[in-house]
Write a structure and sequence with these properties.
single chain, 322 residues, alpha/beta, Rossmann fold, five-stranded parallel β-sheet, two-stranded antiparallel ribbon, 7 strands, 12% strand, disordered N terminus
């Protein structure tokens, strides 16, 4: 009961802070949001879709989004690559950034096959002369999981999300845990409802991390399972690509909207989503997705309404686990 009261008080404070941030009706409203992740954030320009939804659902809001993406990498990798400096850019010192650059230079020299350290090094070298120009603090930071949340006790996600959260909260920003579910996304229509037990077990673990660091959550394993149960005709990943397809990306954007504003995405006008990876057959058709279907999916009114509702109901169901 004490924990629940504490969490309720915290979210009341968060919502009050958000209300002050967006201002009164007619005033300029701005949210500065940082997305940390890999291709599960990069595909479909997910943060841009979230921005479109956020601004459509909150008239007058300017949603400034920044992505730090390293394909296939986890939060542990992001920490090694210095993403924590981006998180704390409002207080980052030149000494800290130079130390990160030196460490990455050492990594590049020692591991020439590491394709991530060179891009991180380039990012930090570009940041160094712009430290003073990048003092704007973040309002929200989204921390994406990717397989680092399903093995180990505690998992690597449970280890590194709090490390990032400590820096995020030190500047007064909110944390959102974006949980991916690559192992449960279906590439073919289902004929039976999926087993809920492993999904609930994972969600309880995510809820424990969220409670520990007082974070909001986009619980995509639970939302996906709900979609598979209610709309078994829909697929959530590509056949020829293990990534989330347009439907799952749309569900994810709707769920992130719910986590951002703690309100329903039902009724949002955004009704299409476009992947960032195209067909790689003989014609290399840029108008087709990895399965050879149109790269942009335009959702019917029914599908859009169902996906928005499922995202909200899945997000709401997750709150009962906390």
């Amino acid at each position: 009961m004490t924990r629940l009261l504490h969490r309720s008080a915290f979210f009341a404070l968060v919502l009050a802070s958000f209300s002050m941030a967006v201002g009164a009706e007619g005033e300029k409203k701005t949210l500065n949001v940082l997305f940390i992740g890999n291709s599960f954030t990069a595909r479909h320009n997910l943060s841009t879709v979230v921005k479109e939804m956020a601004e459509a659902g909150n008239p007058g809001l300017t949603f400034n989004r920044t992505d730090v993406i390293y394909g296939g990498r986890t939060l542990k990798d992001h920490w090694r690559l210095g993403t924590q400096n981006i998180v704390k850019q409002s207080t980052l010192t030149e000494v800290e950034e130079k130390a990160t650059i030196a460490a990455l230079e050492k990594d590049v020299a020692a591991n020439p096959k590491d394709k991530y350290a060179p891009s991180a090094l380039e990012r930090h070298r570009a940041l160094l002369p712009k430290i003073e120009a990048n003092r704007q603090p973040w309002d929200i930071v989204v921390l994406q999981s990717y397989r680092d949340d399903i093995e180990g006790d505690p998992t690597l996600y449970a280890e590194y999300a709090p490390k990032f959260a400590e820096l995020i909260k030190a500047q007064g920003a909110r944390v959102i845990l974006y949980e991916t579910t690559p192992t449960t996304q279906n590439d073919k229509p289902l004929t039976a409802a999926p087993d809920a037990a492993p999904v609930l077990a994972k969600e309880r673990a995510i809820a424990a991390v969220a409670n520990k660091i007082e974070a909001s959550v986009a619980p995509m394993a639970l939302v996906a399972q709900r979609c598979q149960t209610e709309r078994p005709d829909l697929t959530l990943r590509f056949v020829n690509d293990a990534h989330l397809n347009q439907t799952m990306a749309y569900l994810t954007a709707c769920t992130l909207y719910a986590a951002l504003f703690e309100k329903s995405p039902v009724g949002l006008p955004v009704n299409s989503i476009t992947d960032t990876r195209s067909f790689e057959g003989e014609r290399n058709d840029k108008t087709k997705d990895r399965d050879g279907n149109p790269i942009t999916r335009q959702f019917s009114d029914k599908d859009r309404a169902d996906l928005q509702r499922i995202a909200w109901e899945g997000w709401s169901e997750f709150q009962k686990l906390r």
